[in-house]
Amino acid sequence: MSESLLQVSELRITIDKVRVVDGISFAVAPCQTFVLLGESGSGKSMTALAIMRLLPESARYQAGDIRLHGQDLLGLPESAMRSVRGGTVGMIFQEPMTSLNPVLTLGEQLEESLSLHRGLHGRALHEAAADLLQSVGIADAAQRLRDYPFQISGGMKQRVMIAISLAGNPALLIADEPTTALDVTVQAQVLELLRKVQRERGMGMLLITHDLAVAAYMADQVGVMYAGELVEMAPRAAFFKQAQHPYSQKLFAALPAQPDQVLKAIAGSVPALDSVFEGCRFAGRCDEVQAICRSVAPVWQDLGNGHQVRCHAVSSPFQIKSGPALTLSRSAQPVLSVHHKQALLTVRDAQVYFDLRSSTLFGKRRQLKAVDGVDLDLFPGETLALVGESGCGKTTLGKSLVQLQPLTAGRIELDGVALGGKLRRVLQAQRAAIQMVFQDPFASLNPRMRIHALLEEGMVALGVEPDAPRRQILLEQLMTQVGMSKQVLNRYPHEFSGGQRQRIAIARALAVQPRLLVCDEPTSALDVSVQAQIVNLLRELQTSMGLSLLFITHNLPLARHLAQRMAVMYLGRIVEQGDSAAIAASPAHPYSQALLQSVPTLTTHALVSLRGEPASASHPPTGCHFHPRCPRAEAVCQVIYPAIRTLQDGRQVACYFPIDPVAA
Amino acid sequence: MGWQPVILWADGLIWLTVAAVGLLFWRGADGFRAGWQHLWRKPVAMAAGLVLLCYVGIGLLDSLHFRLRLPAQAGMSAQYSVEVNSVLDVLIAHLNAYPEQTYSAPLAKHLFVKMPTILPDGHLALTYPDLTLYQAQKLGHDEQRARGRGQEKIRLGLRGVLVGVLLAAAMTLLFAGWQAYREGMPLRDLLRTALQGKHPLPWRTGWATLTVLCVLGAMMAEWSTVYHVLGTDKIGQDVLYQSMKGVRTGLMMGTLTTLVTLPLAVGLGIAAGYFGGWVDDVIQYIYTTLNSIPGVLLIVAAVLLMQGFIETHPALFDSAASRADFRLLFLCGILGVTSWTSLCRVLRGETFKLREQDYVLAARTLGVSDWRIMGRHVLPNLLHLILISMVMDFSGFVLAEAVLSYLGVGVDPAMASWGNMINAARLELSREPVVWWPLASAFGWMFVLVLSANLFADSLREAFDPLGRRR
User: Fold this and answer.
1) Which of A600, A561, A625 is nearest to A253 (CA)?
2) B359 and A427: CB-CB below 8 Å?
3) Which of A413, A496, A531, B36 is deepest in the core (most CB within 10 A)?
4) What pLDDT does B209 receive?
5) A293 and A376 in one domain?
């Protein structure tokens, strides 16, 4: 394969005894994007680091070779390798916040790379830096060079990272989850930029992602990794038309598609990589598993057109089901009717302001309006999704509901009684009634307490069940409800995977028998397949216990899947509220539309990305907060914040020029 | 002969601490016991722990004080000696039974300095006089003299090695027997797995450490019948005796001062970090004020005040020992009060971070009270910091005692302490030829204590960290 730019063959890497990468081979051609797709722990990031020879100290190359332009990278001396890093191969990391040095200006960081790899000096260096910054879409490049990283936003930082990685005119760009830490509207911009620079420079690109939709949007070739192994490789068209490996198919099935349907979750989680594998690594989680899968490791099956798959089922007479399993079974219970007369929870004109320290001693005190006049109603048994980008105040609002964050003004009522009562009994009842599930299950469980103690704590504090033996029975029931065994109770949180921890966190919230569960992005720290398990669990619990859910998320497809009603939030205010199917089908507010269109889906070919980035809540724009980014903005939008108007289908929109639902 | 127990304040406190630790073992929570069992599986912990146990043993024996009854006199009620002795004093009394005139080197047979002596022929000459201890031995064992001292050193040393090895083997076997009984497996099987290193407990490390300790102990015991093993100091006191007496002072300083700082640092640090606002302001104000006064100045002032107090109230102290004890306690107190600030600051910062952790927020939504959150969610997650700084402080306090004694504001000058020994070394090192053994001895004993405490604490932290236990 002389035409390939990067050729990885039979690469095997171990860290201590863990085989993190176990015999993978692939090639990246010039002008082509190869997407490595996989869940966390599948070894995809290790592969990227291995190409750069930046593996951690304890890692060992056991076998295989990596060739760039036919040259063996593993045989190069370290001094030659340094010119490859950042020179022939550029790399972008996931977290733009931590990959720039906070004490150096952008110019210094960019110029360092330029002078190293292009040998530029003085004026030429400055100009090259400014040009480069311009080329990644940063306005006022010459000015920006003097800025420090903290002065620019996350999306801008990722652009600067891309600029730095382009400084050496690389032939290959490795991007490790480059948009995972970014908001959807910004993700769209960065993906667009990556495509643009790749086309212009004719680079090869190795893109690592866990997101099928990003893969669909970016890839020429797709490789699916599972437990340190590649299990399927195919050109994009073939892969997205008909993925062949059961694991790939399950990844498709786990995507939220139709509302009111149960997501196809993959049972269990990725096996520990230090176990000795006999047979297929996916056998334990596979529906199509046969006797042979458990004893003989499958070899590559060539399906023609470069589509290869590592599965016994593909070659066997048992032909696998046609197409990704998108035909989902309908959920057993109907969703509860939502239009009760009495709302469970009413939020009226809720405001949460934070005082900012002024930069000068006698300067004017500024306020950050995290939540700025929100009205919401939540009915018993209903799911309301609160959708918005980071910094829009959705989490702050959620915290106010569970009384972690006092309101600056406004009212939150539970069953018509205002929250934050003085009476201890009332306060306890209100605390028990509204519980929260946090985003990061790794941070929300105290590592020093056994599960038993964690779950029991709230029951004791809120007096749910003072009797210890009865409490034990309740806890065991609870564990069964969230799909875990009761032996779990005696163990510590670190013994569990992310998905299991989130189940435990849900159980903890349920232990005090709440009526409303505030879920703050409960799945965003989890893998796609596990995300589906948690979403299904929440639905199940809702139907069996009649819970109300407030689902806080930035993921609009997920919100549409799970919620009956949806509220879209931008800079502390709700811009659109109404039936979730209706909003998802034809958003009325330009911002809702932008959110919807910037999410790559399996079928998008061009993303509509918004201009700019969310403004800061400490100085929101005058008039409509959204007008600087809005394609429909007119003069009036810059002056007065639009009043809420109700559309024919009952939707509420804060916009002067809502998109006509019929026309859209 | 009768005796009367004397409970000094410091003794009482240290035994209370021991009792509290014992109670924790006996009725401790599951997690505590599991962590403890896990701790002994680490070879380093085993070795350091055994060494520490030796120190603690010496210190505790030295903290059991009593007074002997004087020979009864007709017509008077029982009288007790003014001198307060400890159990350790009795056990190692023979070390100090033959005070010399001045310096003598370790294992020497004569003094380190020339003295005018009258020779057998009646002339006066400057010679190295024989040690009194040696003379006593010489009178008793004439035949030993004939064999020569060099041989005797080796003979006694070898006997010490033999006794030590046997003693260590016996103790290991005893433990093994007990463990075999507890596990319900034959002793033979246990010994085989232990020797192959397959038993969860590091028997080989334990045995090796015990052997080293026993051999050293036995050799010193053997030699001490004929020699001053570590030499004598300026006024002819046995250095080994002094060093062993210094163990108690060092441990007291370390432990009691830590006991003073810990509640202040932990309580105030967590409160400041958790509540923030005015509570934080007040606590910060206190410790910045305290920090801005030079600590040594504060200690000197306090110690001088205390000395004045002792002199004006002689009736309160019935013996020299109780006066020294009061001084020690006071020193621990004032040292503790001046040195809690750094740990407090660290804990405050860390609590700030923990307060925003999701699991603390989750506990708050569950209506758990502030005190409970601080106790169950914040404190356990600070333990590693507390433990590390506790041990570093412990070592620091042992060393601080030396510095303060050097300045003349440390423990009672009459009290045996490593600090006082090091203080004396100022003169010893500047004379020619150099007298190095008191300093080396004090340094050695202190070094081993501090090192093993640090190593032990390291393992302790790992063993009690649920995350660390995976390894």
Assistant:
1) A561
2) no
3) A531
4) 93
5) no
Burial group, residue A58, by CB count within 10 angstroms (0-12, 13-18, 19+): exposed
CA distance B457 to B435: 35
Tell me the average pLDDT of chain B.
84
Which residues in chain A come in under a pLDDT of 50? 1-2, 316-338, 663-664
- Subunit contact B358:A444, Cβ cutoff 8 A: yes
Number of helical (H) and strand (E) elements in chain B, helices listed first: 19, 5
Q: What is the pLDDT of residue B83?
A: 79
List of chain B residues whose C-beta atoms are within 8 Å of the C-beta of residue A404: 361, 364-365
Examine the pLDDT at B471 and tell me if it is beyond 50.
no
In tens, the pLDDT along A245-287 reads: 888 888 888 877 665 567 777 777 777 777 777 788 888 788 7
CB contact under 8 A, A494 and B466: yes
Helix (H) or strand (E) holding B124: strand B124-127
- Please state which of the ranges A121-130, B146-155, B161-170, B421-430 shows the lowest mean pLDDT: B146-155
Residues 368-427 of A with CB under 8 A from B: 399, 402-404, 427
Residue A615 domain-assigned (yes or no): yes
Structural domains in chain A (count):
3
> What ipTM does this complex have?
0.78
Q: Which domain holds residue B317?
A: 241-470
Task: Write out chain B residues lying below 8 Å of A399, CB-based.
Answer: 361
Domain end among A185, A216, A238: A238
pTM given for the model: 0.79
> CA-CA-CA-CA torsion for B267, B270, B274, B279, nearest 10 degrees?
50
* The two three-digit tokens of residue B86, written as one number: 């400890």
CA distances from A204 to A87, A207, A450 (A): 14, 10, 49
Within an 8 Å CB–CB cutoff, is residue A505 touching chain B?
Answer: yes
The number of folded domains in chain B is 3
Q: H or E segment at A78?
A: helix A78-84
Domain interval for residue A259: 242-315
Position B468 scores a pLDDT of 54
Task: For residue A610, give the nearest of A43, A188, A30, A21 by alpha carbon.
Answer: A188
A14-18, A122-126, B30-34, B149-153: which is most confident: A122-126
Instruction: Kindly provide the residue ranges of all beta strands, DSSP E only, lying in A396-532, ordered along the sequence.
Output: 409-414, 417-418, 434-437, 516-520
Q: Cβ contacts of residue A205 below 8 Å, gap of 6+? A: A28, A32, A33, A34, A172, A173, A174, A175, A194, A198, A218
Verify whether the Cβ–Cβ distance B369 to A446 is below 8 Å: no
Question: Of B224, B255, B285, which residue constitutes the final position of a domain?
Answer: B224
- Band of residue B54 on the pLDDT scale cut at 50, 70, 90: very high
Contacts of residue B381 in chain A, CB cutoff 8 Å? 446-448
In total, the C-beta contacts within 8 angstroms joining chain A to chain B are 75
- Same domain (yes/no): B299, B180: no
Q: Look-up: residue for tokens 């014992």?
A: B22
